[in-house]
Structure formats: C-alpha cells, structure tokens
Amino acid sequence: MKGFIRSLQVALWFMFLTFPIMVIKVDIVEKTVQWRWMNLVYVGIGSFVLSFVWRFLMEKKNKGIKAREESRDEKLSFIQKILTEPRYNRPLFLGLLLFVLVFPWMFSTYQTNIMISALLYVVLGLGLNIVVGLAGLLDLGYVAFYAVGAYAYALLNYHFHLGFWTVLPIGGLLAAIFGILLGIPVLRLRGDYLAIVTLGFGEIIRLVLENWDEFSFGPSGISNIPRPGFFGLHLTVEQATIYIYYLVVIMSLITIFVVNRLQNSRLGRAWLALREDEIACEAMGIDRMKTKLAAFALGATWAGFAGVIFAAKTTFINPASFTFMESAIILSIVVLGGMGSIPGVILAAFLMILLPEYLRAFSQYRMLLFGASMVLVMVFRPQGLIPNVRRKYLYGQKQGVR
Amino acid sequence: MLPILEVKDLCMDFGGLRALDHINLEVFSDQIVALIGPNGAGKTTFFNCVTGIYEPTHGDILVLSRDDGQRKRINGLKPNKITELGLARTFQNIRLFPNMTVLENVMIGRHTRTRSWIFGALFRDKKTVQEEQETVEVSYNILKKLQLEKYVNEIASNLPYGAQRRLEIARALAAEPSLLLLDEPAAGMNPKETKQLEELILQIKEQERVSILLIEHDMKLVMNISEMVYVVEYGRLLAKGSPREIKEDERVIKAYLGEDHDA
Amino acid sequence: MDYFWDLFFSGLTRGSIYALIALGYTMVYGIIELINFAHGEIYMLGAFTGLIVAGICSVLGLSLISTLVLAIVIAMIYASAYGVTVERIAYRPLRNAPRLSPLISAIGMSIFLQNYVLLAQTSKFVPFPNLIPDFAFMQPFEDFIGPSELVIIVVTAVAMTVLTLFIKYTKIGKAMRATAQNRKMALLCGVNVDHVISMTFIIGSALAALGGVLIGSYMGQINFFIGFIAGIKAFTAAVLGGIGSIPGAVLGGLILGWTESFATGYVSSDYQDVFAFCLLVLILIFRPAGILGRTNTKKV
Predict the structure, then answer these.
(1) In terms of Cα–Cα distance, which of A23, A40, A21, A371 is closest to C118?
(2) Which residues in chain A come in under a pLDDT of 70?
(3) Distance from CA of A112 to the nearest CA of C (A)
(4) Which architecture characterizes domain A107-380 according to CATH?
C-alpha cells in the first residue's frame, strides 16, 4: 500500500513535469495550440509502473551490496561461467564464429551491410574500451580519431590515388599520432576535465572539417571513395559488400586478440592500476604519462582503422558522421557492456546497433534509449552487462602463467 | 661509506607556511631509522618530498642509485623515477589498488623490475613470457614471506585491515628497493598486531637487506627496532640520536609532554 | 567605431546568457564536484517551456509584458522541477560511486532529454516570438544596442546580484557555502545536504531557464539541440572564471562572449564555435583552476 501511494505520487509528479512538453505543441506563426491529452495518460501509467520497477531494482541493489560485504568471494554470474569455462565456451565460440562466417551467404546484402556496421562498432567499442575501460580515461572525442582514419583514406585516395590497403596502416598510424599529439597536453588533467577537453577537441576537428572547404570539401563531404580492391579484380556491389564483411570480421578478431593480450600484460596491469589510484601508481614506479599515452594512442589506432574501413564501406563521408553523438554511442557501448570486458562490449555493440535496425518501430527511440540505458546502467549495474572477470594466476608451479 | 639517503638542509614552503625547516637526515645501508614527532610536525611532508610527490623549496636530497651505485640528486624528479632509483614507500592512509587482486597488487610493484611494453604484450615473445612468469613467482614468494599467500586471488579491498597494511609493504618490497619508507605502518593496529609488525620489519631488514625509514607514533615499536631516531617538531629537527639518547632528551620530553611537565 | 560597439554589446549579451547558464555548472560543481552534463538540456527545456507558454498567451491575446513575465516564471519553475528530478534519478544514487560514474550518467541524461524533446516536440527549428517590446527611450542608441540586448544585460545583472546576496546572507546560502567547502563536515554540523544539493539544482536550473527564454526571444528560433553547444560554452565560461566561483562564472561568461563576438566580427564567422572550444582547451591545459579559481595541492 505504501508502495502504491509512493508510485501514485511519482506518477503525478511526472505528469506535472512532462505536461508542457508532452501535451502542448504550439505554432507561433499560425497561432495554434495543439493539445495531446493522451500523452499525459501514457506518462502517468508509464511512470506509475516504472516507479515500482525502480524501487524493486533499488532494493535489489542495496541487498546486493550488503550480500557482497558479508560473503567475500565473488560469485560469477551464469554468463561469466559459460564464458570462462573452456568446456562451455569453446563450442559456443566455435558456433558463433561459424555463424559469422556463413552469414553473408545466408542473408541479403542489406543484412550484411547492417552486420558490417555492427562489427565496425565492435572494433570501435573495443578500441575505446582500451582507453575508457582499461585505463579509465574518459575520452568523449573518440570519434575524432575515427574521422582522421576516414578522411585519411578519402583524401589520400582523392589526391594521390592511394589504395585501401596502403591507407589502412597509414590511417591507423595517423590516428595514433593524433592521439599522442592530443594526449601530451591533456593527459595530465583530472578525469572529468579530460572528458571535456577531449570533447572539445572532437568538436574542433569536426568544425574544421566542416569549414575548411579547400582541405576537406566542407559539409558536402567526399564521395566516390573506392571500395577496397581485391587483387585488381572488379567486384560488383554485392561481392564488394561480402568482401568488406569478411574484412571487418578479420579486423574484429584481430582487435579482440590484441585487446585481450594487452589486458593481460604488464602494460594492461599498469592501466588498471592507474584507473584505481594514480598516486600509488607513481609511487610504484609507473610512468603515468607514458602509460596513459600508450592507452590513448592504441585506442586511437583502432578508431583510425575503423575509419578507413568505414570510408571504404560507405564510399561517401562528410563531417556529419563524426558528431559528438557518435562518440556518445561508442561510449555507451563500452559502458553498457561493462568497462574492460571484451565479451560485454561485443554484446553491447550488437544489441545497440542491431536492435534498432530490426525493431523498426523502435528505431526512432534509439537515442532516447541509449541515453536512458547509460543512466540506468550506471545506477543499477555499473559493472555492465557482462562484468570483467579478474584474472586468476597460477603460481608456484612450473607451468607458470596461464 | 656513503649513506643510501642523504637529506641536506631540506625546506618546504606551502605559500607562506614553512612546513619543513632545514632538515638534515641520513640513512645508511642496513639501518632502520625512525622519524618521530607530534601530529602536524611535517613527517609525511618529509616523505612526500623524498618520494617526489612534492618538490622541495630548498635543499638537497641525495640517493645512492640501486642499480649503478651513483649518487643522484632527486629534487624535483617524478615519483616513478625515484622509485626506479630504489626508494619504495607505503602510505599512511592505505592506498592499495582496491579492485585488483592481492597478487596483481604485488605484481604492479614489480613494474620497475620488468621491461615489456606494447610489443611484448602483443607478440608475447620469449622474453616477455619469461618475465611474466618471473613476476608471478617473485610476487607470490613475497606474499608468502608476509603470510598473505592465502589471499592471493582475493580482491584487495576485501582484506582485513592488518593484512592490507602488510600488502602495502609487500607491494613496496616487490620493487626490490634499497630503502623502504614506511609511513605509520602500525597505525590502527592493536598491541598484538604491532608486535607482529615489529618482528616482520626486522625480518624484512635481515632477509631483503633493505634499509628502512619509518614514521611512527608507537614509541615502543620505534624504540625497539630503530638504530637512529630523528625527532621533528614544527618542521624543525629537534633531536637525533640512538633510542636511548632520545628517551632521555629534555627537549623531546618537553615536546611530547608539554612545557609544564615538571611543574 | 560603431562596429566595435555593436560587437561589444552583442558580446556582452551573449556573455550574459553564458554567465546565466555557467552559474548552474559552477554551483553544482562546487557542491558535488560533478560536471552536470545535462545542464545545457535544462536550459533548452526552459526555452521550450517558455515558447509553449508564449504560444498559449498569444492565442489568449495577452499583452507582451505579461507574456514575457509568465513565460519566464513558468519556464523557471519547470526547469527547476526538471533539474531536481534529474538529480534524484541520475546523480543521487551515484553519490558514493567512482568519479566518472555520475559523469557518464549525466551524459546519458543529456542525450535522453534531447531526444525526449525531439520526440515530444519537433526535430526542426521552431520560431520563437519576440517577447521584448521596443522602448521609446532606446531610440538614440538603437544603432548598436537593441531592446532585447538591453533587457538581457539588465536582467542578468539583477539575477547575479540577487544570487550573490542570497548566497551571502540567507541561511540556505550559508549552508550551500559550507557544503561546498566540506560536505562531510556540513553534514555533521546539521546541514541537510540533500536539501542543499536540491536547492543548488533549483537555482541553477531556474537561471538556465531564464537564459533560455531570453535567448529564444533574442535569436527568434530554438530547437532541441541548442542546449548542447550552449552547455559546452557555458561550461567553458565556468572553467574560464574558475569553476566553483560565482563571480568567476560571470567573468568567464563575459570574456567568452566578447571573445566570440570580436573574433567572429574581425576574424571569421565560419569558426564561431571553434573559438570557444579552443579557449576551453587552452584554459584547461594551461590554467585549469581558471582566472579566479584557486589551485589546490594534492593530498596524500
């Protein structure tokens, strides 16, 4: 009963709060006012129900904290168990890989294209995961490096007719150099200031691309970017799509491999430690700047690669593809998946890109739900969908590190 | 013989406030030196100057490098460079990496003793694999020495308080320092735990051949283990000497018990 | 010279708006050390609420002055309500979480609110009526300062003065200053920290809404996205002046307004937003404490 009254209060509050924006729509020129009373009803019912859910989750969370304080060992969730246990994860991974490999032969070019973007976000998400998830540096301008890669391919191709395969490493390298150049001045800033500065840099790069017509062809962008060549053969659009698809699959696999290795290395440990306590880190002999720069540059490299592939896939780029919203989407993938968790980021990338594509009715609410999920994940499940599992080391035996 | 750490005329100002005023101090190898004084006397500031968190306003801090035996002036060096020279510290208010495992905490301590970087991480060449293996082994052995082996894969923040203090020491030891700086290692411990700590410090000194500089309030601990005691008050060096000399020093008694002690 | 004064006053107007929004950033940061990323959205919501009220008033045929007052008052009330609600949902549960968690939550909130307005209202720019009447006494000066500009400058100055007095002399103002200095201690001294934080959000949001309605009337159009750029610029202003400092926010806002105005007037108008971002980046890199802020030494 108490909960009922509480929810009623919440519903009333939200009906009041959203009244002008949800119900009234005015037109100043025509001098008309449109009243949409039904929306008020929806808000009322929606917030009434959601407030129950909210309280339920809140209680569960508080209980969870208490439970963790009482029992010291952390229980692995069902998903984590499947992912860490070789008996289960091997067939699972194999099945997934097989599915991914035959995908373009089973589905249309359209579907394959969607899959390509999802995989590109996997690469981007994992790249940003190095910076945000492992090293704990909140980079809100990640899309700038993506733009560097994309424009590197478009411009080098336009001016010098360089091919995709030549530009791919150049794009990654350029992005890394940008990462270092940007990193040197900003990485000594505190976490939240770093976030804002990177946001500022991202916007500066976009605005420059938009306004410097002689260099970047302004807002109209660059079109007719060639798709990647395949030993000089001419490919039809369908064939090229399948080709790019496999390319992105390989790219994703390489990314997974690299991030996994980085995470379990001396450098990876230094990143994790840096995320937890910078002063203790320095006292342990870790060069703060060098370690952060490594994270920044490596993260940027992956965005650069993804950018080159993106330009080759769409054959057209303009600054509108590199707004802050793009950075925010990539960030929400990392946050939702679980910072530092590779399977989490992959799952989140697929969820966030595929769901809106396949549930069309839902696609206009996409950004709304992105935003809401970022808040909810932070409040109720800060470790993400699939939390990162701390590695256990074997010791005292000859086999050493597993 | 040259001291491992020599501090000459060290001054540290914060704005108009002089927190340290011409401090001189020496630590020789195989020595346990204690720095005592009332709260706010400047002890932790002194540590922060020596370990590079603050840059002193005036004076010299000279350290005998662990690797090449050269003397280096470390004023203004970054903390990580100073750790590389062979100084490792613990913190008054425990600063572990709370969400990493106990073993990983110690492995971080090995950072200055290992080299692998991006290339090694990606390609896992033979050298890197060996280095990783060694890191795990050495770290585990240190944990064993400090009786922490049962916690190896535990998350650091889940450890009981005393174990967390020991883990900080373990992490510092992993750097194989020539001088270990302990900032109030017995803070918050009961007499029994303090006694154990005392034995532990002596044992570390023997086994690891490391000199120790410690800040401590527990007089019994200080008097039992240190060979040399420095007393600071209001940022100034009040007295220095063996524990016995310090115990009998008029000025020290006054500083600790107040002017009107005899009256 | 007229051109100069024209730019001067348009910079002052712009700067006043930045200052109004920047205050919200600076106060919230001062108290809970959070960059309230959704603050720009509160400003945008204020502008939209103002538009809706103005629309209804014009249908009802109310006079310009009463429309202006109603629009501002209702927008401020609603913005405060939004501000408090955002704090309850997205920040309060995270008060003891790692530093970056509330920031990410704030970014999520900002995206949510933008799309909420986009879906509930429109994605297009909508015209905003001019709510500020022409004053007869302005005639001789109208070459370089219009009535809207004058009203914005005056209203901002009044709002700042009231706020300063409020913080200095009222009980809740003192509680706010105490909480900003040391939240734990304030709590121990019997300050209801939750109330203080809510109050901060109310004041900050109300000022942002004031800015939103005024700028809507001044620019003649608004859309769901105006909060993003304005938010970043106002944050720049807050950092420029020294985050946490109220006079700093005003100073930062004015400096930013003039920089933009003169730079677009004398250099190039293409890069208007770039100037602000560059200023932001430079300030954060070279003097993160801002002009009036204090650098604090790290504690170990």
Answers:
(1) A21
(2) 66-77, 394-402
(3) 29
(4) Orthogonal Bundle (1.10)
